[in-house]
Amino acid sequence: MQKLYDFAVAAASGKRLGPRASRQFDHFVFRPYISYMKPRMGRPPKSGDKAMADRLEIRVSADEKQAYEQAAQTAGLDRSEWIRLALNAAAKRILRR
Question: Which helix (H) or strand (E) holds 30?
């Protein structure tokens, strides 16, 4: 703690500090602050426990996009989740034949 005090006094007096003093400052001041920080929680995944890593991009007309949006709102889902559910159902139906 004495080193931290000495560093603060030297910094306040306008003295130029060498590289060793700046390392002491980093260690004694910033490291304890970081070690007591709580980890931040990110947004929970929207689709269950699995993270969606792959992307599928398709081109649709404005009318189709609007119809998908309305259907998703009616179902209480966001558009991408509604499209994913509809495509999965269609794929299962076709693969059962």
Answer: none
